């Protein structure tokens, strides 16, 4: 929440910038970026700070840190659509080029729909869209296990 980034109410707050540089592209960039962003945010350690009573300035202690509290874990799942009959999860660049459309579904850990991104192309029936959402829920569970395992493996003991 935004309160987690607050240093001094109405005065100071942490600002986090996230830039992505794609070194190689073989499709499905939205999924990769949201996954990378979630992993990066789960790995953020904010330095401990205090407000100097005399100067009113923030003093930062880089040796003591607190993890950023991540309350929601959105995971994107992209699909290549072929004439509303075939869906391919996690499409390659070639599959995206050959597809008649694409759709990306973002779900949170409680199975709630966060976003649907459908940038044109062929339409989807309600049944196919529901199939995408169901698959996105399953993929979210798998991705969350994987990211938690990786984050746990890199945390200092």
From TrEMBL:
Protein known as: Ribosomal RNA-processing protein 43
Ranges annotated as spanning the membrane: none
Protein localization: Cytoplasm; Nucleus, Nucleolus
Cellular component, GO, one term: cytoplasmic exosome (RNase complex)
InterPro entries to which the protein is assigned, alphabetical: ExoRNase_PH_dom1, ExoRNase_PH_dom2, ExoRNase_PH_dom2_sf, Exosome_comp_Rrp42_subfam, PNPase/RNase_PH_dom_sf, Ribosomal_Su5_D2-typ_SF
Gene3D superfamilies the record matches: GHMP Kinase, N-terminal domain
MF terms (GO), sorted A to Z: mRNA 3'-UTR AU-rich region binding
PANTHER family linked: EXOSOME COMPLEX COMPONENT RRP43, EXOSOME COMPLEX EXONUCLEASE RIBOSOMAL RNA PROCESSING PROTEIN
Keywords, sorted A to Z: Cytoplasm, Exosome, Nucleus, RNA-binding, rRNA processing
Organism of derivation: Mauremys mutica (yellowpond turtle)
Exoribonuclease phosphorolytic domain residues: 7-47, 74-137
GO biological process, one term: exonucleolytic trimming to generate mature 3'-end of 5.8S rRNA from tricistronic rRNA transcript (SSU-rRNA, 5.8S rRNA, LSU-rRNA)
Similarity-based family: Belongs to the RNase PH family.
A Pfam family annotated for this UniProt entry: RNase_PH_C
